[in-house]
Amino acid sequence: MDNKRGNVWIAAAGLVINENGEWLVVKKKYSGLKGKWSLPAGFVQPGEMLDEAAVREVKEETGIDAEPVALLGLRTGVIAGEISDNMAIFLLRPLSRDIVVQTDELYAAAFLSKTALQNDPNTSGLLRYLLALEPLDSLSLHDGLNPGDPFGYTKYRLYFESSKLKE
Amino acid sequence: MDNKRGNVWIAAAGLVINENGEWLVVKKKYSGLKGKWSLPAGFVQPGEMLDEAAVREVKEETGIDAEPVALLGLRTGVIAGEISDNMAIFLLRPLSRDIVVQTDELYAAAFLSKTALQNDPNTSGLLRYLLALEPLDSLSLHDGLNPGDPFGYTKYRLYFESSKLKE
């Protein structure tokens, strides 16, 4: 366990969907997700926003360039009664097509159809849950708000959705 | 700056709306929000989920009991180029009515109408932004999923929304 991280964790995952409606998934070599199809994900680093962490993890694990579109959801939980473990899941738009698998950490990375993932016994529980919820709603990216100089923000973004905006 | 927290922060805020449509807001005595109406909020602690942190902060700051209903949104940013500062904002349902102000940290706590908050020059920028977005959509609480024993979760919740679920 990484002591730098303390007992409150925040991670980001990216769901990249290509023009054929296929989902970009990875098979990790470690952790509870070992050998299971799951979303590219990892811990947020100092100096980056949550959505930037999702974009970076997708790039590092799969070689795919992507940009944030919306917030799909949040997973929050507690591990062993003491670690607050949180993950925000972003919808990302792919900007490239060629997968380069990060073989140190992953067995595989691929764009797979929703049917293929639903029928594969090695699809992770969370991914299976998301496939059953599809089509997923989301909260839109709001960029450009200046929260005010006293806060010292050098980057700032919001994810919210309003029914009014959809009309 | 709290070193335990490192350079990746995660906080939770709660929006409690009463039966008159009034928003529960507080005026902090410190930080960039000093003297501004803002939502009860604070850092997540080890052993608690994000939504539990929102409920706890509302209780500590205002005395109001509440329960989580939905995820309204996410604020993510970077402070001074190095601190990843993140906050999830939950919609909470009030379970009590009597406000008890935490006077060590706050000048005031009150249920105020949206019009009152919009007209008050001391309403925070983020709160003003949310008031303009109203009515806000949200991602629903999904409880009861078992992610699998290998993960060691003692608590686990998801916030997602599907158009299918609304029908």
UniProtKB/TrEMBL annotation, chains A, B:
It comes from the Bacteria. Residues 8-134 form the Nudix hydrolase domain. SUPFAM superfamilies: Nudix (SSF55811). InterPro entries: Nudix_hydrolase, NUDIX_hydrolase-like_dom_sf, NUDIX_hydrolase_CS, NUDIX_hydrolase_dom. Transmembrane segments: none annotated. Its cofactor is Mg(2+). PROSITE patterns: NUDIX, NUDIX_BOX. The keyword Calcium does not apply. One of its GO terms (molecular function) is hydrolase activity. Keywords: Hydrolase. Gene3D superfamilies: Nucleoside Triphosphate Pyrophosphohydrolase. Belongs to the Nudix hydrolase family. This is NUDIX domain-containing protein. It comes from Geobacillus zalihae.
